[in-house]
């Protein structure tokens, strides 16, 4: 956890982290929205960033074009391995910027400042970088940790409610992977008016759940697959929505994936039905729905593309109980269709 | 060394390595020349490769365009992490294909079959992958080892003499980094008519010199920099030549870099002048020259871009004696110009 810094004033933290870094050796990547945060973030270092790559917002710009723009800035402006790339934004920016940093001269220094709840509790943690190819999520990427992740909860104050709800889906997943007490707190927390102190505690717990699992298995050979809970079906829904140029958020897709994979867990692993019903009800209340049955065949095709697959079929992480997961389960198309039907 | 397999019949080795791999899960990348080797290489697995990406020959095609072509084939044809990318070619193909494999779904299985002397004794070893950006060598890349490197010396029989001489420059470097006895054998070996048995022994020794150094420092934090001997100036010459669209080979540039950096070693580190003169004479006899003094300023600018640099200036590995190197030396523009003048 020592690389993760919690704060309510990231400009102070950055002033410390950037001590001794030469002005022209700091590089920034942000999107059109988060670039507006940069002046404030860097106000205590007393200079404006010289080298800024601004990419277009949205998952569809987590692309080779954006990565190439960052590489090009770094190369043209003389970045070195010892230079720093500061990635300011949601998971799109930290994933894509982290990939660019991990491959520029085979790896330069990198700091993330995640600005969305989703990025703070999930995307910026665990050292997975990447971008999308032909609509396939994170088809290209590396395992590479940034030097520091600065989690500033005050940045969430201006985050749209819909974005906050999206990030909350990953916290629900972390709740399901850890213990009933934490899950309980998540299920009674009103995501619309989170009390700041309480919310900070929930975030910290979520970060530690993810960090504990990743530390045990950084390269996803085994138990890290637990974190894919909800994501086999969730990613397929997200890809399907992206192909149709709809405006679905990652966490919105994952929330629906959690319903379906929790249903599979009840059926295949004896996960308690009562907890399933409560989680499903919570998601149904706060998250938009999606006509999954209209796209069931497409969704199945997309699942077959999932990175976790081998030749045995579509690979799922399922739960036996809260905090008890079982990796490498294979489900048939029929089972999957039945699960989709619960969404 | 267990990942490196020496053979005179790579089709036999591949038949063994590919046992159990499904036909449609083998992917091949080759260039327009080496693609002709593939049928023979795969004759003992009894099937023709289905998925082949062919890239244009030459260092200028070690580019993002080529990498993207490989990514696209892998993605469109349903490659998985457990699929194999077989890279058949010189360092251009193994570096670029290795990069594509190390980043596809954050890393798939990969086997190199280096077909040039340069790739066999250097490029395919040590886990550096990458491609060129805007004329800058290996500006983008990863540290990632293939699962196996199959070194088949019989493939060298059809290699043009000029290519063989180019690869020999890296062997000279390995000689300078190891011991006088090996260097002696290299300096008396006629590169035009290498006896096969003797040559195989020279190759094996070269591979072990490189492997020993890389194993101690895979991510180039310290002593691996020894392998950059000759490359600070050599890479600059190569980049300069590439910008001018000349047809210089990597090893030809490195041979000239060895002269200049050996001269710096004599001046700054007391490297024995007699050995310097013999190595210089050997290189002058077998390698084409280059008008370095006409491009001295450009070359210096290019050196400033070198990945090994930090803010202290141009970073050199120099030699105190054969087998005794000193990393992280900084030389001034004047010293470098004097060294260039010896080429």
TrEMBL record, chains A, B:
<keyword id="KW-0963">Cytoplasm</keyword>
<keyword id="KW-0028">Amino-acid biosynthesis</keyword>
<feature type="domain" description="3-dehydroquinate synthase N-terminal">
    <location>
        <begin position="54"/>
        <end position="163"/>
    </location>
</feature>
<comment type="function">
    <text>Catalyzes the conversion of 3-deoxy-D-arabino-heptulosonate 7-phosphate (DAHP) to dehydroquinate (DHQ).</text>
</comment>
<dbReference type="InterPro" id="IPR050071">
    <property type="entry name" value="Dehydroquinate_synthase"/>
</dbReference>
<comment type="similarity">
    <text>Belongs to the sugar phosphate cyclases superfamily. Dehydroquinate synthase family.</text>
</comment>
<dbReference type="InterPro" id="IPR030960">
    <property type="entry name" value="DHQS/DOIS_N"/>
</dbReference>
<comment type="pathway">
    <text>Metabolic intermediate biosynthesis; chorismate biosynthesis; chorismate from D-erythrose 4-phosphate and phosphoenolpyruvate: step 2/7.</text>
</comment>
<keyword id="KW-0862">Zinc</keyword>
<keyword id="KW-0456">Lyase</keyword>
<keyword id="KW-0057">Aromatic amino acid biosynthesis</keyword>
<keyword id="KW-0170">Cobalt</keyword>
<dbReference type="Pfam" id="PF01761">
    <property type="entry name" value="DHQ_synthase"/>
</dbReference>
<dbReference type="InterPro" id="IPR056179">
    <property type="entry name" value="DHQS_C"/>
</dbReference>
<dbReference type="Pfam" id="PF24621">
    <property type="entry name" value="DHQS_C"/>
</dbReference>
<dbReference type="GO" id="GO:0003856">
    <property type="term" value="F:3-dehydroquinate synthase activity"/>
</dbReference>
<dbReference type="InterPro" id="IPR030963">
    <property type="entry name" value="DHQ_synth_fam"/>
</dbReference>
<feature type="domain" description="3-dehydroquinate synthase C-terminal">
    <location>
        <begin position="167"/>
        <end position="309"/>
    </location>
</feature>
<keyword id="KW-0479">Metal-binding</keyword>
<keyword id="KW-0547">Nucleotide-binding</keyword>
<dbReference type="InterPro" id="IPR016037">
    <property type="entry name" value="DHQ_synth_AroB"/>
</dbReference>
<keyword id="KW-0520">NAD</keyword>
<protein>
    <recommendedName>
        <fullName>3-dehydroquinate synthase</fullName>
        <ecNumber>4.2.3.4</ecNumber>
    </recommendedName>
</protein>
């Amino acid at each position: 956890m020592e690389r993760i810094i919690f704060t309510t004033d990231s400009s102070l933290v950055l002033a410390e982290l950037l001590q001794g870094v030469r002005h022209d050796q700091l590089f920034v990547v942000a999107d059109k929205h988060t670039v507006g945060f940069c002046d404030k973030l860097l106000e205590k270092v007393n200079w404006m960033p010289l080298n800024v790559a601004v990419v277009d917002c949205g998952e569809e710009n987590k692309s080779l074009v954006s990565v190439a723009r960052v590489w090009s800035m770094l190369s043209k402006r003389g970045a070195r391995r010892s230079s720093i790339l500061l990635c300011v934004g949601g998971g799109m920016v930290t994933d894509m910027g982290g990939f660019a940093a991990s491959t520029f001269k085979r790896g330069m220094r990198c700091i993330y400042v995640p600005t969305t709840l989703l990025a703070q509790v999930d995307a910026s943690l665990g050292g997975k970088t990447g971008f999308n190819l032909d609509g396939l999520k994170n088809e290209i990427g590396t395992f590479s940790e940034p030097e520091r992740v600065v989690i500033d909860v005050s940045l969430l104050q201006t985050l749209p409610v819909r974005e906050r709800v999206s990030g909350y889906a990953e916290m629900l997943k972390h709740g399901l992977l850890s213990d009933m007490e934490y899950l309980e707190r998540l299920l009674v927390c009103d995501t619309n008016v989170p009390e700041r102190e309480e919310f900070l505690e929930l975030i910290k717990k979520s970060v530690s759940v993810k960090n504990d699992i990743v530390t045990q298995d950084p390269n996803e050979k085994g138990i890290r697959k637990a974190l894919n809970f909800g994501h086999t079906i969730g990613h397929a829904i997200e890809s399907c929505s992206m192909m149709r140029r709809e405006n679905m958020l990652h966490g919105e897709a994952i929330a629906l994936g959690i319903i379906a994979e929790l249903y599979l867990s009840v059926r295949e692993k004896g996960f308690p039905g009562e907890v399933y019903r409560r989680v499903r009800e919570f998601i149904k209340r706060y998250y938009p729905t999606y006509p999954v049955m209209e796209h069931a065949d497409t969704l199945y095709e997309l699942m077959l593309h999932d990175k976790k697959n081998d030749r045995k079929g579509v690979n799922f992480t399922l739960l036996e109980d809260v905090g008890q997961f079982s990796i490498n389960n294979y489900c048939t198309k029929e089972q999957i269709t039945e699960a989709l039907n619960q969404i």
